[in-house]
Amino acid sequence: MSTDRTSLFGAREGNEGIVRCDACPVLCRIRPGRAGACSRYANHDGALVRTDPLVLMTRTVEQGGATVPFLDAAEDWHGGIAPAARPADTAPGAQKADIAPAAHASGGVPKEQTFVTAIGAGTTYPDYKPAPFIVASTHEGVDTVTVVTEGIFSYCGLKVKIDTDRHLGPECAPVRVQGEQIGHVTTAEYGSQMLSLGGVRHLTGGSKREGNITCAAMLALCRKEAVEVEIEGGARLVLQAGRAPVVNGVEERRMRVGCGSAAIGIFAGQWHRHLDEVIVVDDHITGVLTEHQAGKCLEMRPSGIRVRGRRSTPGRYFQVAHPGTGWGGTDITDPLSIIESIDPKAAWPGLRLLLTSTTGEDALYVELDEALRPVPAPMPPVVAGTVERIGENCEPALTSILFMAGAGGSLRAGVTQNPVLLTREVQRQGVRVTIGGAPCYLWPGGGITIMTDVLRVPDDAFGYVPTPALVAPIEFTLRADLYAALGGHVEQAVPLERVLADYAEAARLEPWRPGNPWPAP
Ligand code: SF4
After folding, report:
1. Taking the CA of residue 10 as centre, how many other CA atoms within 13 Å lie in the half-sphere pointing to its CB?
2. Is the CB of 36 under 6 A from ligand 1?
3. Is the pLDDT of residue 73 over 80?
């Protein structure tokens, strides 16, 4: 536990050393040596402290962009919004201040840049109070401010992408944990099944148990932990960010190469001359080679084999079977059952037919006998090679967890006294919003509705409060003059050097994540 992080807002109560935490609406009364309900704050010798260290992320010049000189001392700060050097700057903290910049600079040429994340920064509540850290620094000669807080998000959810073509459950089906609904199945995407989890309705609109289980499941997923969920009328899943999904106890391996029609389009040239017909079984669009435009272009002879389902366009069939966990996301386990008819006027004995799934994990080679019945036969090596090529073109199946939240609410008041100005500047891209340094996708339209991949966020970044709501780090980075123009809490800004000095020992230092853009305004 970090013990030198004293909240500005905790208050002592009575004579028993109890401290009241006012970092969220729960207002825990915390006894000495104990932590509050969320474990984020504790009473340490009568002081309210944040239990997790502040996370500072650094990058070397070689990792990132141009070299940026650090200020030598707080009094040199000329951004116009930092407070003048206080006596405290020359007291205990100043000793650290001498140390911290030295660790980042050598001979006046800095080697590293540091970004103060909101992880471990704490929360101010109610939100009209300035954010816990308003950090002034320079980036490529531009005076910059980063406003740092741990937001409490009652309005948040997860978008889960599961790379599999197996049918996991009907669209809109409830997704449950311990019997409580925490979300639902949403529209499938190309090669992936999608879930929408959490959200304000499950957090607040149902029973207390539903809210708590939803919050706990979201928190675990954001922390990159495994969570088992059950889809009503569908599969049991184990989900974990960056790991293969586990469907009904079986770890998924491959993300399909494409739909059945796409597979025909990709491999038609490689099947031509070695096969007389290919059927790629897919729950959505099953492809039939000789009927498909690809087969036509290759001047393949029609095979007379007709598959079940609704013909969309030549060689492309919908609804060939029911959804399931069999071949290509259908309930088919006997692939020959997909054949509806074989036209004796078109087909011929000896016709070579390949049936394959969209991942190549399931494949069957047959030849028509004299009665035009499909008879399984050894797969010729050249055909087996094409099936292997399908597998080679599949990507590893992964689970992706995207955290989505609305930051357009009250936490903006901790950034500026006129929140709509912040919203507009975020929308104009004058403000860079990050979650623990990770870039966010900003949804169009009103508000500040953001989404980020939890794998791009440092570990131990998310928390919760028992209202229930998720706690997530959020940083707003913008030009210092713009911050002042937005009505920002400029009087609360402190130079980066002072933050580094004050937290040099207590902070958790992390390298900047390659691939995450440096949050410059
Ligand atoms: S739940 Fe956590 S943040 Fe909220 S009052 Fe209690 S200790 Fe403080």
Report:
1. 28
2. yes
3. no
